[in-house]
Specification:
Blueprint: H1 2-5, H2 11-19, H3 22-32, H4 38-43, H5 49-59, H6 69-77, H7 88-115, H8 119-129, H9 139-152, H10 157-165, H11 168-173, H12 187-197, H13 205-214, E1 218-221, E2 224-227, E3 237-239, E4 242-244, H14 248-256, H15 259-273, H16 282-294, H17 299-307, H18 325-336, E5 339-340, H19 344-353, H20 375-390, E6 419-420, H21 424-430, H22 441-455, H23 463-468, H24 481-491
Antiparallel strand pairs: 1-2, 3-4, 5-6
């Protein structure tokens, strides 16, 4: 029992899971954050779901920008845009430097998702990245974009939308830099209406044309938003039934005044956080959209309300969502406190699984759902835990990148991924209600049950019999640590581990 005495809090874990419904806790944590860690199980001991929710949101109040001073210095040294270069060779060097910097930002943001205390903030920023979709071409633009999502993601949606709409990353991505009086570019205006706010069927083609005129003159210089008044169409525009000499800010306010915007956003939020396979019930949709609209689109308040509802914990909403690659990777890291010797491993895993932060496939984002799984990605998911733990040879190659802007995102293909697992907290948790350190049948059953409860949203049929076969070779060991690792690796290789 000496290992348990080192941390008395571990002793509370079993009583915690006895008092609180373990599937409810796992469901809440997996949806609101990037996964339950052994440390989470300790600090949430003897707390109900309402208390856990309060803790999660309190921890997410603080915002710290992602960029470091070293990053700022590197940004200042890097070329800013094509017109500053003197030759084609300079342009290629600039593109290479930007890819390298964005690759670093990708892993920095991913590490923040994995390790940051403010998990709800990071999860919400990840949601908005899949909704307010953008693929920044310049590193300094990418940093701004990510930090806007992280800073404003739990606040008022209107403030987030305006900030993202004025970000150089979005203005460049959706061509509003070319949107000028007498030559309107409708790309940005179209996506704002179709994908970001109202959704199809709630506006007309004329509304797109008129709002595009309102956004004329919106552009950027280096890293700052610029309103070029001489390029702005000052004439009257009729948008969603309202006529005036509208500017871009006016268009956003008119959109926010439409209740259809709240309905559209609530459907997306419900699909991501509650249930991606079933349509939101009409009564819940009406309740949530009214609350969201009446609160002036207070996203944090809406999310906290959702997590506190009984219907959120209904069985139909559990274990029906396939973890996205980012959620899967973050979940794995939080459970094992994995560190990688080479951060290229993180890029490689994202490429193999089909979701790379800051590199969405198009403005509609990732399709998600069953689209995450095919024969190769499922096999890699099931093998990943073992590959990382045993530093096994990798017999898969990342798909060739056909987007010229993305070429060179990762240098070559990895032969091995060296990762370090911190087993101590998990082992202490697994042994928390064992009577001794020996491999007695009773102890092994308790340890196995602890691990199943910790890792899986539900217990598959005959799982105990299956896991028993994983420890036969070490039945005579005097300590249980080897068994814990064998059982754990067997559990995370199950298809059920892909669900949340």
């Amino acid at each position: 029992m000496s290992n348990l005495v080192k941390n008395n809090n571990i002793l509370f874990i079993f009583s915690f899971f006895s008092i609180m419904n373990a599937p409810d806790l796992l469901h809440l944590i997996q949806r609101a954050t990037f996964g339950l860690s052994p440390a989470d199980a300790v600090r949430f001991a003897n707390k109900n779901t309402n208390q856990v929710i309060d803790i999660l949101f309190e921890e997410s109040k603080k915002f710290t920008p992602l960029i470091t001073q070293k990053d700022k210095e590197e940004e200042e040294e890097a070329p800013k845009d094509r017109k500053e270069t003197k030759s084609e060779q300079d342009r290629r060097m600039m593109m290479k430097e930007n890819r390298q910097a964005i690759r670093k930002l990708n892993t920095q943001w991913l590490t923040q998702m994995m390790q940051a205390e403010g998990q709800v903030r990071e999860k919400m920023a990840f949601f908005w990245h899949g909704h307010l979709v953008c693929q920044p071409r310049m590193f300094n633009h990418a940093v701004q974009y990510v930090n806007i999502l992280r800073e404003k993601g739990l606040g008022k949606f209107g403030e987030l939308l305006l900030a993202i709409s004025k970000s150089p990353a979005m203005l460049a991505y959706l061509n509003n830099q070319q949107n000028r009086k007498n030559r309107p570019n409708e790309n940005f205006a179209r996506e704002v209406l179709e994908l970001f706010t109202l959704g199809r069927g709630n506006y007309t083609e004329n509304d797109i044309k008129e709002s595009a005129r309102a956004f004329t003159g919106w552009g950027f210089a280096t890293s700052e938003f610029v309103f070029r008044e001489k390029q702005h169409d000052t004439g009257e525009k009729t948008f969603l039934g309202k006529t005036g000499k509208w500017k871009g800010e006016d268009i956003i306010q008119i959109i926010l005044a439409k209740k259809e915007t709240a309905i559209f956003l609530v459907k997306k939020i419900y699909k991501f956080f509650v249930n991606e396979t079933q349509t939101i019930p009409n009564d819940i949709l009406a309740d949530l959209s009214k609350r969201y609209f009446d609160s002036e689109y207070d996203t944090g308040r809406l999310l906290a309300y959702i997590f506190n509802q009984k219907w959120f914990f209904e069985e139909k909403n559990k274990a029906q969502k396939i973890k996205s690659p980012i959620e899967f990777l973050c979940n794995l890291q939080r459970q094992f406190d994995i560190t990688f010797d080479n951060t290229d491993s993180l890029i490689f895993i994202q490429k193999i699984l089909g979701q790379i932060l800051l590199y969405p496939p198009n403005v509609a984002g990732w399709a998600g759902g069953k689209g995450w799984i095919d024969s190769s990605t499922l096999l890699f998911r099931l093998r990943l835990g073992g590959l990382l733990y045993r530093v096994s040879d990798i017999d898969l190659q990342a798909k060739e990148e056909f987007d010229v802007q993305n070429k060179g995102l990762m240098i070559g293909n990895l032969k091995k991924m060296k990762a370090n697992f911190n087993w101590e907290n998990l082992e202490n948790y697994a042994k928390s209600n064992a009577k001794s350190q020996k491999n007695t049948t009773e102890n092994l059953e308790k340890i196995t049950n602890n691990l199943i409860t910790f890792f899986l949203p539900y217990s598959p049929k005959n799982i105990q019999k299956y896991l028993d076969t994983q420890v036969n070779s070490t039945q005579n060991n005097t300590k249980t640590d080897a068994n814990i690792r064998q059982i754990t690796l067997a559990i995370i290789a199950l298809p059920e581990y892909q669900l949340c």
